[in-house]
Amino acid sequence: MLGSTMFGNHTLYVLVALTFLPWLAMAENSVIDPQQNSPNKALSSELSHELDNIDAEFLPVQSSTQSPSQSSIQPITPSSTQSSARPTAQSTTQPLPPEGIPPLQTEPVNQDAAEVIEPLVVTPVDLSESRIKKKAILIGIDGVQFEKIKEHETPNFDRLMIRKAYTGGINHFASEQSTNSGPGWATTLTGVWSNKHKIKSNNANRANDEFPSIFKRIHQLNDTLTMASIMHWNLPSEVFFKRDMIHVNRVESNLTDAIATKTAIEEIQKGTEFILVQLNNVDYAGQQYGYGENYKKQLRNADQQLGKILDAIEQSSQTSSSEWLAIITTDHGRDKSGASHSKQTAMEKTVFIGVNRPLNEEFTKPLLTANSDFDNMYSHPAQTAITPTLLAWLGLPIDPFWLFESPPLIGELTIRKLMPDTHMTLRWQSEYEGKAEIYKNKTLVATIKATEGQWQDPNPPENDPVDYIVVIGEQGLAYRTKDYRGIRKLLKWQALERLRKALNIPL
Question: Which residues does residue 46 pair with via DSSP β-bridges, in sequence order?
Fold first, then answer.
């Protein structure tokens, strides 16, 4: 009786706190059925065909009065950021391991350690919005064909919502890029295609500083956030974005997939706020053997490693005030044999984006565009959406003049699917009740209703590339035209070279 009188109120407070201690749960499992492959629309190598393409891009077109249709959308308001000093990055630069698939740690996940989490009961966690720490991890598993995920047993992939996406830019337009690892990873980490970041092959040098990686973006916007880059492939951190790595707390490359997985889990447990981890064995198996038992085996191993990472994220969410966004993707698709990639075919352009929480309609609802190539592939999310999504999740504001080509996959939408048609009319989708501001090389040239969904430049570019930006509300999407001056120079050189060889004229 005395104990109840003296301590009753305190007991009540503790019971209330324990009752409402939250447990974050993973998002529903979902995999969209892959669409059928469409015929490849390969670029013609003939000079006359290329000149026809150049002329066709500027042909006049009658304006359409049809308005696009999509869900109700509102502008997104970015969060403010902080600034303070951060530690110096550490980098390891070692020779690549010899060819061959390194040994993998394929032991089953320790279910007891991964799932049985004791809640903190001494001091209830303050989960008011100001105390929740948002963190993100980007998991890249190179060479995984989207269609193969559903064909094989992949229980940990199935824990995520996975949607078809595309890489390789827009076929026949300025953004077209090869479906190789270099351009694919550079696009994933910058949010733009290779005509901007300039990584056009695996043998490229440093990326264009005008379009930095997500690591530098995060540092510029909030240098208190800790970051880690953990990769098997060394070129992104040691060559393409070497300058950006000075802002990253931990930089590792040349790692086996097993060690990369273990290192990523260490960073999750340490509380690192943005982590990139890349695994490579599936891609290597495809290159060496194509689709088959070895590819299936490496996909199964990658699934186990993914499961360990997801378990660590769940544990972090349950034992701290952390809220995680996990994105899983791949750098490119593969051809029908599984042994090759680099071209503009439906399978080689097909990638995927998987997440552990619900996203917006750019992710969940494909939207038809004027370009129906590859069985309407461009209705799906683009590889360029990954960096904007990670920045938005971390509460970092996105400048429309960064020339991103996709909106974030979280938050409300004001503009979707900006792309030109064959007559150089810019088209987009929006239901925003307001104005669309159209910029040409960052100069405002027109203001129209956002729902009009199209605009044609009365003075189209003839030589140097032009950046068009359509800003609606707080969001903006960009499109860069071809470098016609450079194309004409190249075509003239190629024509002269053919003539020289035909006449047997020595150099």
Answer: none
Question: Contact 480/196 with Cβ under 8 angstroms?
Answer: yes
**283 and 382 inside one domain:** yes
CA distance linking residue 78 with residue 25, whole number of Å: 26
CATH number (domain holding residue 448): 2.60.40
Q: Is 463 exposed, middle or buried (0-12, 13-18, 19+ CB in 10 A)?
A: exposed
- The answer to whether residues 321 and 351 belong to one domain is yes
449 strand-pairing partners: 435
List CB contacts of 44: < 8 A, sequence separation 6 or more.
50
More confident residue, 13 or 180: 180
Give the side-chain half-sphere CA count within 13 A for 298.
27
- Which DSSP state fits 433? S
pTM: 0.73
Residue in this structure with the two tokens 């938005």, named with its chain if needed: 392
Q: Is residue 30 part of a domain?
A: no
Residues 240 and 195 in one domain: yes
182 within some domain = yes
Last residue of a domain, one of 364, 398, 432: 398
Residue 109 lies in a domain: no
Alpha-carbon Rg of the chain, whole angstroms?
Answer: 25
289 and 263 in a common domain? yes
Sheet of 350-355: strand order equals: 30-31, 161-166, 350-355, 322-329, 133-141, 274-279, 227-230, 250-252
- The residue with tokens 């750098």 is 331
- Residue 27 CA to residue 6 CA, distance in Å, equals 44
Range of the domain at 200: 85-96+130-398
Give the bridge partners for 252, in sequence order. 230
Residue 297 main-chain phi, psi, to 5 deg: -65, -45
Task: Read off the pLDDT of residues 164-203 as tens digits, 9 standing for 90 and up.
Answer: 999 999 998 999 999 999 999 999 999 999 999 999 999 9
pLDDT tens for 358-399 read: 999 999 999 999 888 999 999 999 999 999 999 999 999 999
Q: Give a yes or no: residue 141 inside a domain.
A: yes
How many structural domains compose the chain?
2
Q: How far apart are CA 114 and CA 477, in angstroms?
A: 41
